[in-house]
Amino acid sequence: MDHVPRHILDAPFRRLGRRELLDRLHAVRALAGVRGMRYFDDRGRPRTIDIALKPWVLTSAQLLYFHHVARHLSDALLRLAHLYARLPAVRRIVPFEPEREAWMRLCAHPRSRPLAVIGRLDSTAVYDHARWRTGFRMLEPNAVGVGGVHYAPAACSIALDVVGDLLTQALPGRAITATPDPRQLLVDELRAVATRLGRPLRGVALIENTDFTTGTDEFQELARDLAQRGLRAVVADPRELRLVRGGLAAKGVPVDLLYRDSELAEFVAMERGGTRLAALRQAIREGRLVSGLTWEFDQKSAWEIFTDPAYARHFTAAQRRLFREHLLWTRLVRAARVSDPGGRPVDLPAFIRRNRARLVLKPNTLFGGEGVVIGRTVGQRAWEQELHRALRGRTRYVVQALAPIPSDGFPRLTDGGVRWQERSVVSGFFFNSSGIGLVGRFSGLPVVNVSRGGGLLPALWVH
Q: Are strands 253-255 and 241-244 parallel, antiparallel or unpaired?
């Protein structure tokens, strides 16, 4: 069996009485609170992230298959740096303003592993039906400051603690563990980069912009985990990095490599504000930043390069097949003629106006579901106003084919009770140079994101 059918996994959960469901749901909530599952809202108030009681359970065949998917897509993303240097059309589709482009010239773009990356590829993949290989779509790439590196394994540990006995009932005689730990992917990537540079790995700075006090809160937990693995780890703002006697230090602590949550645009803004990031620039020149600046090509408009037949010759046969079957048609919004989902040339703004119900507008480089407009959820007038903003505003947008988002039923706490509720679900595949991990998300809203009130879905592995 290459998948675990939904009815097999559902059965032991459906047999639980109301009192036992309540007890287990409260146990999940309590463990989430003590295992660092925090999110800070726009007012800086913490909330405990909701964790699904019923996890996903993947087979080895599924993990191997999606490992190949992630490898093909990460290699294609890596190819964009070289296409950007050679092709003016690519520079228009995956744009960088002059300040960011100047930073990009600091680094040598890797042509072989290690790739200096911890990324996440978001997808509609689900795993409990026979069409799991063919029915999914890849939504967008994220290769810088990805969320979930701590949350995903913490959610798995909660699921194993609270419902491990139910999973054993569903799959007797089978070993069930967490899917590969993205924290280990991070450590493996740091060690590989250090080896390539010919330096020992003793200390790591986890760099984040401390001007931001909202959103995910993982770096302190990651620092503790790295310390338990024998590495010196410090959480610091990029402005707190220093060059000390030829070495790199963060908050006075010597470090060998940097792992970043900040995007390149934040570094540009810091220097505009008057702070010269000399130590960070030197670290980039020396290849000591993870994810490296090559991965700034993780813009949503990268999907246009992959889904436009005009660029097909730059990719392998396996990549082209993946693009055709599993990538959503995507175009950077602009006044231009482009190929539509059927390959026919169209005026892009006019096409967007006419096809509201089957399209989505997304900011090209924002994250957390910010600014996403699903055409079928707004009227024509509002849609055209969003299109005008996308064409004329400072923020660049992409238009993307609407993906069918799958759903699943979960037992949920309600006021004074428990009820099974249907929720939209999406997958996020972590990747580094050599492996993958997985985190699921679920939500009652069409945009499935923790920042929009969604929760996390543990992803386990049956052996």
A: unpaired
Measured CA to CA, the distance from residue 26 to residue 41 in angstroms comes to 22
For residue 121, list its beta bridge partners: 141, 429
Q: What mean pLDDT comes out for the span 322-351?
A: 97
Residues 334 and 458 in one domain: no
Supply the Cα-derived Rg of the chain in whole angstroms: 22
What are residue 396's phi and psi, to 5 degrees?
-80, 145
- How does pLDDT run across 401-446, given as a tens digit for each residue? 999 999 999 999 988 789 999 999 999 999 999 999 999 999 999 8
Query: DSSP 3-state assignment of 175?
Result: coil
Alpha-carbon gap, residue 217 to 40, rounded angstroms? 7
Report how far residue 189's alpha carbon sits from residue 115's, in angstroms, rounded to the nearest whole number. 8
Residues 365 and 455 in one domain: no
- Using alpha carbons only, give the angle 22, 456, 155 rounded to the nearest 5 degrees: 75
Please report, for residues 263, 303, 397, the alpha-carbon distance to residue 297 in angstroms, rounded to integers and kept in the order given. 11, 11, 15
Beta strands in 245-291 (DSSP E): 247-250, 253-255, 257-260, 289-290
- The residue behind tokens 């029915």 is 135
DSSP state of 122: E
* Same domain flag for 338 and 388: yes
Rounded CA separation 139/146 (Å): 15
Domain that holds residue 372: 329-401
Q: Are 430 and 150 in contact (CB under 8 A)?
A: no
pTM: 0.95
Instruction: Locate 303 and state its tokens.
Output: 């999907």
Distances (CA, A) of 111 to 59, 431, 434: 32, 17, 15
Cβ atoms of residues 371 and 363 within 8 Å? yes
